[in-house]
Amino acid sequence: MANTSDMRSGLILKIDGSLYTVIEFGQNKTARAAAKVWAKLKGVDNNRTIEQTWNSGETIFPVRVEKKPYQFLYKDDSGYTFMDTETYEQISVQESMVDAPRFLKDGQEVSVLINTETDLPMGVELPDKITMRVTYSEPGVKGDTATRTLKPATIETGATVNVPLFVNEGELIRIHTKTGEYVERVKE
């Protein structure tokens, strides 16, 4: 059993039969009352976000989760299909389980979170930063690179990302998958 002192970001807890990921947590301590631990939680098996408070030292119920490397194969009516890179076993998950589906491209390596109690996939995480090729972008004007002005650019997956004016069509760029923001230009 674990208690509130084991709380950390990314921990997956079972609360009232549902699974939640700890996004943010902290401790409140007042002069006379006992310390309380609070957490902002995001649903793994539902789309709810809740806040929960426990007394310090209270028992919590974490779920053991394994991160396994998988490769994205394709998307069809049944969802997104991934292949285990070690056993070549395939799984299919719904779009809501993928953290940034607009940045998935064929053959891309991802991490699949698997609940060790049920051996079922709980979610798919892309790497923090990925490299993509710009397929369409308006050309930048020479000398207009001094400001931090952004323009829309379409990348190879069809998603649109705001990039600086100096980025042109055909170039490789690095994108932060959690925020969808441009990070840097990549040399080939």
Structural key phrases:
flat; mainly beta; 5-stranded antiparallel β-sheet; OB fold (Dihydrolipoamide Acetyltransferase, E2P); about 190 residues; 3 domains; single chain; SH3 type barrels
Walk me through the topology.
Blueprint lengths: L1 E2 L8 E4 L2 E11 L7 E8 L5 E7 L3 E2 L4 E12 L2 E6 L5 E4 L15 E7 L4 E6 L3 E9 L12 E6 L4 E5 L7 E5 L4 E6 L2
Antiparallel strand pairs: 1-6, 2-3, 3-4, 4-5, 7-8, 7-10, 8-9, 10-11, 12-13, 12-15, 13-14, 15-16
Descriptive overview:
- With 188 residues, the chain is mainly β.
- The chain has three domains: 2-60, SH3 type barrels (Roll), CATH 2.30.30; 65-125, OB fold (Dihydrolipoamide Acetyltransferase, E2P); 129-186, Beta Barrel (OB fold (Dihydrolipoamide Acetyltransferase, E2P)).
- The protein is 0% helix and 53% strand.
- The protein contains no helices and 16 strands.
- Strands 9-8-7-10-11 form a five-stranded antiparallel sheet, with no helix packed on it. The protein has a five-stranded antiparallel sheet with strand order 14-13-12-15-16, with no helix packed on it.
Put the structure in a nutshell:
Helix content is 0%, strand content 53%. The protein has no helices and 16 strands.
